[in-house]
């Protein structure tokens, strides 16, 4: 028996299969707490999202939202660094270029590990879009 969803109730989305699925979900959840950004997201078409036009709206979100996004990005960078370290430990090769490894992770700007900027949102959207095509 199917039951209707109560308005405002969170609908559980299926796992995307992306190795950064949790990060993606957290970024979306935080962005949706900003009324202005949520309205823009709801009215944007897929081309506006993929083109990066929606990413520019990030400059208009509240300070609290930006602070939370910065924190999420730092956590994701730390997670990726742990993955790289684990990979290095398993290979035992001391000549590994950390920057080259980080470039494999195209869902965030690894050159700026401390703050979540429009470029990060754009890269996250493009990574998801490339994966789904």
UniProtKB/TrEMBL annotation:
GO molecular function terms noted in the UniProt entry: calcium ion binding
Superkingdom of the source species: Eukaryota
Subcellular location: Cytoplasm; Golgi apparatus; Membrane; Secreted
InterPro entries in UniProt: NUCB1_N, Nucleobindin
Spans traversing the lipid bilayer: none
One Gene Ontology cellular component annotation held by this UniProt entry: Golgi apparatus
Domain NUCB1-like N-terminal stretches: 6-128
Pfam families tied to this protein: NUCB1_N (PF25434)
Keyword terms, alphabetized: Cytoplasm, Golgi apparatus, Membrane, Phosphoprotein, Repeat, Secreted, Signal
PANTHER family recorded: NUCLEOBINDIN (PTHR19237), NUCLEOBINDIN-2 (PTHR19237:SF22)
Protein name as annotated: NUCB2 protein
Gene: Nucb2
